């Protein structure tokens, strides 16, 4: 897919309209449909503009650019000359076709990376920034399966589920697209600079914000609508009741996209948002194949064990580096269901559950979450030496906080 060449004057016209305060994307699209290119829009009278939209929009279009506009325009012109950088307008044939089905597509998109990534069928994988170990594993696993089936995986480059989804997708064929809530020249969070570089090389980073725009809370709901718009379906892995992921899911539903959610334990806070979505009609899924089938995508052949283990090792190492860069242990609660097997009798407690745990025991309990896990999984999540892991596990069993299950698995005791 190739972008049409655009003169500096044409780009400045687009920048002036897209940066004008008080001109929402839907109104700008109406003006472009009525009068043509930005130069023609800017040449109209107040009466003509007001007749096509309203008086407030007409005033905003004809207002003189702010004092920072010249610098913004100069920066954009210089930025697009760099290799791999693109500025696409609504009139460009390379503009992502899925966004054109939205009622308010951005008039300008800043893109770094491969334009083809924005023209393949895509699925969004989103969720909590404070993801559990199980959640990040699920996000990476689902994203990897989607990418291996040829889908582009769309997410928001945030910590937690987003980052795990991007990493999982980078190991497949479809690649990944990161939609960000800052200027394209800013990586947020800064700890994802390496990940952002990998995405730009194998996929694309997309922003509708002018260069230099910092991370503001108000930007991210608007970013979420683009994540939904680019995708044929949205999968929410983990979400609290007030998660931004629920905004993405709601917008996707309003646009007629499929919405999927992973179920979890009724005890896990990050399952509550997913459960709310399921009550409202989202499709409950337990495997990536269910999503692919709903989207009409053939399942890719599964890789051999050696490939799976190599990819899993790379994912764990990358996640561990980002967690350390953010001062996070990576430990958290899992959001999968409780075990189906009958729970065996709990070992009599030698300690009250309200008593403080040792640091190693607390670390292990956090990593265990609410889903059964084997000793090998716990070792990967905690990065504890085997002897320390065994001591902490025994301590938690004797304290009545952990119960052993058949098959060498462990789970939280029911009162936790």
Task: Describe the overall structure.
The structure is a single chain. The protein is of the alpha/beta class and 416 residues long. It has helices spanning 8-19, 25-35, 38-42, 46-52, 55-62, 69-79, 133-148, 161-170, 193-202, 219-230, 244-254, 272-279, 288-294, 305-325, 359-368, 375-382, 386-398, and strands at 85-89, 108-113, 122-126, 152-155, 176-179, 204-207, 233-236, 258-261, 283-284, 373-374, 402-405, 409-412. A 9-stranded mixed β-sheet has the order 1-2-6-5-4-3-7-8-9, sandwiched between helices. It has a 3-stranded antiparallel β-sheet with strand order 10-12-11. Mean pLDDT is 84; it is low at 302-312 and 321-354. It folds into 3 domains: 8-113, Rossmann fold (3-Layer(aba) Sandwich), CATH 3.40.50.450; 115-312, Rossmann fold (3-Layer(aba) Sandwich); 338-416, Arc Repressor Mutant, subunit A, CATH 1.10.10.10. α7 links the parallel β3 (122-126) and β4 (152-155). α10 (219-230) packs across α11 (244-254). The longest helix is centred in the C-terminal third of the chain and has 21 residues, at 305-325. It is built from 17 helices and 12 strands. Residues 301-358 are annotated as: Disordered.
């Amino acid at each position: 897919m190739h972008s049409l060449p655009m003169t500096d004057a044409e780009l400045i016209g687009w920048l002036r309209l897209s940066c004008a305060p008080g001109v929402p994307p839907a109104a700008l699209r109406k003006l472009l449909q009525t009068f043509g290119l930005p130069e023609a829009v800017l040449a109209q009278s107040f009466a003509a503009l007001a007749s096509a939209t309203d008086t407030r929009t007409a005033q905003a279009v004809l207002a003189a650019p702010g004092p920072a506009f010249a610098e913004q325009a100069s920066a954009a012109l210089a930025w697009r000359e760099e290799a791999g950088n693109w500025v696409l307008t609504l009139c460009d044939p390379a503009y992502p076709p899925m966004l054109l089905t939205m009622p308010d597509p951005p008039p300008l998109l800043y893109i770094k990376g491969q334009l083809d990534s924005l023209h393949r069928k895509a699925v969004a994988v989103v969720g909590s920034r404070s993801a559990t170990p199980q959640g990040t594993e699920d996000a990476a696993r689902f994203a990897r399966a989607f990418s291996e089936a040829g889908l582009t995986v769309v997410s928001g480059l945030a910590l937690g589920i987003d980052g795990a989804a991007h990493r999982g997708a980078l190991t497949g064929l479809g690649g990944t697209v990161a939609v960000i809530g800052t200027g394209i020249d800013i990586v947020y969070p800064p700890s994802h600079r390496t990940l952002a570089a990998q995405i730009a090389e194998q996929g694309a980073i997309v922003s509708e914000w002018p260069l230099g725009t910092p991370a503001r809370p108000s930007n991210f709901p608007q970013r979420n609508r683009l994540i939904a718009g680019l995708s044929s379906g949205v999968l929410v892995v983990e979400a609290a009741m007030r998660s931004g992921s629920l905004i993405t899911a709601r917008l996707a539903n309003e646009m007629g996209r499929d919405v999927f959610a992973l179920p979890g334990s009724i005890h896990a806070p990050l399952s509550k948002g997913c459960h709310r979505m399921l009550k409202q009609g989202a499709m409950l899924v337990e495997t990536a194949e269910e999503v692919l089938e709903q989207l009409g995508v053939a399942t890719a052949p599964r890789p051999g064990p050696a490939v799976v283990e190599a990819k899993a090792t790379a994912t764990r190492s990358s996640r561990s580096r980002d967690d350390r860069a953010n001062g996070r242990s990576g430990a958290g609660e899992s959001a999968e269901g409780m075990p189906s097997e009958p729970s065996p009798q709990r070992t009599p407690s030698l300690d009250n559950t309200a008593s403080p745990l040792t640091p190693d025991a607390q670390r292990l309990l956090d990593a265990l979450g609410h889903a059964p896990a084997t000793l090998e999984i716990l070792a990967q999540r905690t990065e504890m030496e085997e002897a320390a892991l065994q001591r902490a596990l025994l301590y938690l069993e004797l304290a009545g906080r952990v119960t052993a299950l058949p098959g060498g698995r462990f789970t939280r005791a029911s009162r936790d």
